[in-house]
Amino acid sequence: MSKVIFDISMSLDGFVTASGVRPEEPMGDGGQKLHEWAHGDDEKGSEVLAESQRAFGASIAGRRTYDTSLPWWGADGPEGSVRTPTFIVSRSEPAEVPEGSVYTFVGSPEEAVEKATEMAGGKDVDVFSPSIGRHLLRAGLVDEIRMHLVPVLLGAGTRLFENAGGEQIHLEAAEVVETAAATHIRFRILG
């Protein structure tokens, strides 16, 4: 059975992007530091990334993430040649979507979960946009949070859990993988 997993890299001071997010810099000025664990020489980090790519059968992102990242992703989507079906939560579909792309536009995070779970074919669903992840977490639709805690203080940018809602959500640490580039923590949602 598919699990919905909120999977995201975060700085030690709680940011998932640096300030200055724009199409030329989708992670903000210096924000790519948050993804170096996945694309550098960190062997354990590469294993964490490969495991996620094997486990995920579909992804969910928000329109802002799509708009700023499309020039980097292209038609193949965030997972590149793996071509994972990616559901974009948006009020409207852009005028131009790359032909033969992996993107499907849906009207709500809940619809994205429904369609992504169907498309995933029993594999897990990856949620990697902060606002969509927070929404689904508050709605009780996230099974796990996978946090890649990067040893950097960005100082400003997009906070992961800003305005996360007033109710407590209890977690259980299920796995911790430590590397020099990031500490990878898997949390189960308890309620």
Structure description:
The chain has about 190 residues and is of the alpha/beta class. It has one domain: Dihydrofolate Reductase, subunit A (3-Layer(aba) Sandwich). The chain has 5 helices and 10 strands, in the order E-E-H-H-E-H-E-E-H-E-H-E-E-E-E. The longest helix has 13 residues, at about 45-55.
Q: Calculate the mean pLDDT score and round it.
A: 90
Structural class: alpha/beta
Question: Roughly what percent helix?
Answer: 25-40%
CATH class category label: Alpha Beta
Assembly level: single chain
Total E-strand runs: 10
What is the terminal-to-terminal distance? 19 Å
The CATH topology is given as Dihydrofolate Reductase, subunit A
Sketch the topology as an H/E string, one letter per element: EEHHEHEEHEHEEEE
- Distinct helical segment count: 5
| Overall number of domains | 1
Percent range for β-strand residues: 25-35%
The dominant shape is globular
The strand order across the widest sheet is 5-4-3-6-1-7-10-9
Radius of gyration, in angstroms, nearest whole number: 16 Å
Q: Which residue ranges are poorly predicted, with pLDDT under 50 across at least 5 consecutive positions? A: none
* CATH architecture descriptor: 3-Layer(aba) Sandwich
Classified in CATH, the superfamily is Dihydrofolate Reductase, subunit A
How would you sum up the major sheet? Answer: 8 strands, mixed
Describe how the helices and strands are arranged.
Elements: E1 4-11, E2 15-17, H1 36-39, H2 43-55, E3 56-62, H3 63-73, E4 86-89, E5 103-106, H4 109-120, E6 124-127, H5 130-138, E7 144-150, E8 158-159, E9 171-178, E10 183-189
Parallel strand pairs: 1-6, 1-7, 3-4, 3-6, 4-5
Antiparallel strand pairs: 2-8, 7-10, 9-10
